[in-house]
Amino acid sequence: MKKIIFYFVLSGLIASSCEPTSKRLDYPVTDKGDVVDNYFGTEIADPYRWLEDDNSEETKAWVESQNAVTFGYLESIPFRDKIKSRLTEIWDYPKYGLPYKRGDFWYYSKNDGLQQQSVVYQMDNLEGEPRVFLDPNTFSEDGTVALSGLSFSKNGKYAAYSISSGGSDWREIFVIDVEKGEKMADHLKWIKFSGMSWLGDGFFYSRYDAPVEGDELKGVNKNNKVLFHKVGTSQDDDKLVYEDSSNPLNMWSIYTTDDESIIVLTGSTPSTRGNSLYYKKATDKRDEFIPIEESYNHQTYIVDNVGSSLFVMTNKDAPKNKLFALNTEDKSQTRKEILAEMEDVLDGVEINGGKILANYMHNAASQAFIFDLYGKLIHEVEFPGLGTVSGFTGDKDSNIAFYSFTSFTFPNVAYKYNIETNKSAVYREAEINFDFDQYETKQIFYASKDGTQIPMFITHKKGLELNGKNPTLLYGYGGFNISLTPSFSVTNLVFLENGGVYAMPNLRGGGEFGEDWHQGGTQLNKQNVFDDFIAAAEYLIDNKYTSSKKLAIRGGSNGGLLVGACMTQRPDLFKVAIPAVGVMDMLRYHKFTIGYYWATDYGTSDDSIHFENLLKYSPLHNIQAATKYPATFITTADHDDRVVPAHSFKFAAELQAKQSGNAPVVIRIETKAGHGAGKSTEKIIEEYTDMWSFVFANLGITPLYK
């Protein structure tokens, strides 16, 4: 490929006291290649294929030139520093994780406020003096190495922890001698999408073969296998427990029940929506596992065991999930239904104090109930309002459990819950410099294009005037059976306190109403998701919350695809678009890292029918010349090996080339960061500072900060 020469002008983009220029930005000239693919007789040009090579000097030069334009534009926004100052101020409060018991000690995580990473503390008891057990801030000087997993042996003698460097999905595992408080020599590498499940003085984990040098962040992940690591030995000596070389794209994991009496094997394939599930007793030295579910067509997992009874949650013959028990001593494998499928989705189950703690979703908000082990209802747990519950944690053999409750204007509060008395008491609550009493959240239902009723949460200041002039951010996801429930984000407070309206619809493709709702937004039904989101925008406009000139849309990953598809289908409807780490090239997404696993939601271009469907909405392939697109703020990161940055690179290049209006199209490419998990506090504040600065500048908001 010929050498690429970039032409860009920074005049008018340097920091100044004026508003960002309303003139068209001078973008880098991105060279076009001559790559053309033939899909079932249809030729599709891919002129920016060269940007898929993240290691090439040409791509590195392109990234540098794009960031120069982006940060030059951002620096010209006069209130950018004020937004950063306010974000830093409200971010600076202690953030606690729920306490849990392992061995003889209690543990919890805490961030003092602006620490780059949260610290894990250890206590002798719940009233004991906390001491630092593991401080991820010591892993790196810049906070870009994060704690990604922590697992204790049953006796509490050892703790295995995994780290992520620069935001990559690749993990390294280390081991701590808990009694001595010392890191041991154990060091495991090339681990992805794996926990650490203990059996005695060792643990099971899943890994891949070491990738080819240079392909660490983009190569296809194949040949997943499960190994067993014994503490104090080299990874080279780890025992291979399970692999399936005849199906190199399948993924496998092994975990044990809390008492380590049962070993569970589960597998998944790229072509199905579920998993296989097998088990055997830990005392059984044979390799054979007993099947519970072999088809891969349903989501099935073992919650825990009580004695010889395995409690299993599944959506087989129950799209909204059910719970059954299986007696491991019964060779006939008789299954006894404990919690039948209900109208609301069974979202999760824990067993504590000899009781079943079941979390349900009712119209995308949490409800929780306590049952005995036979499924008889004992209590309904009362919550402060419409929100989301997570937990319950604690000592499994105790009647005391801990859970957290949150909502859009309700920061995470940890509660200590007595299962016997059904009483909750505040254990820890956040203290934030913000008056939450001034705000309200409502839930409405609106009709999508095909008449389906879609719920949406709307949060804003009390007394909001419905005059069609309110700046509004519409956030969505709609995929992979993931549910969007009410949750607190300190970053949204900056928008709300400046008169913003925050709206979050529960689109099809998610899990809010069970597997049928999920499948209603997948593969050949994917357009339903975009229709749902567009209808949400039209509802907000029709009901005078906002107008198309005051409306921003945002989503990440699959939500980035959502934003990209909707802004290309209805560019007239939105003023600002924020696709974050988005899946933008729907014809090639499955050719990188773990992307082939998304075929269950998308289908792939390897199939003629799915190719035609994907081509209709693929954001990259539906950008039209001579079209005025919204002001667009694309974000990605150099270590994103989940949705590789080439998606965003190619989308940005194509959109800049075809944008006919003056609305800016910029791409912010973070370094030493990945898909989002483990990002340091500093990088998070900087990214949201830039995002809100872009939104405010393009929606015409002048922040009320001195």
What does this structure look like?
The longest helix is centred in the first third of the chain and has 19 residues, at 57-75. This protein has an 8-stranded mixed β-sheet, sandwiched between helices. Strands 3, 4, 5, 6 and 7 form a 5-stranded antiparallel β-sheet that branches. Strands 8-9-10-11 form a 4-stranded antiparallel β-sheet, with no helix packed on it. The protein has a domain at 36-89 and 434-699: Alpha/Beta hydrolase fold, catalytic domain (Rossmann fold), CATH 3.40.50.1820. It is an alpha+beta fold. Helix 2 packs across helix 10 (681-699) and helix 5 packs across helix 6 (558-569). It has 10 helices and 39 strands. Strand 34, helix 3 (492-496) and strand 35 form a beta-alpha-beta unit.
Number of separate helices: 10
How would a crystallographer describe the biggest sheet? 8 strands, mixed
- Strands, count: 39
- Percent helix, as a range, is 10-25%
Proportion of residues in β-strands: 25-35%
| Structural classification | alpha+beta
Name of the level-1 CATH class of the domain at 36-89 and 434-699? Alpha Beta
Whole-angstrom Rg? 26 Å
Kindly report how far apart the N and C termini lie.
Answer: 52 Å
Shape estimate: globular
- CATH architect. name of the domain at 36-89 and 434-699: 3-Layer(aba) Sandwich
Major beta sheet, strand line-up: 32-33-35-34-36-37-38-39
pLDDT averaged residue by residue: 93
Name the CATH homologous superfamily of the domain at 36-89 and 434-699. Alpha/Beta hydrolase fold, catalytic domain
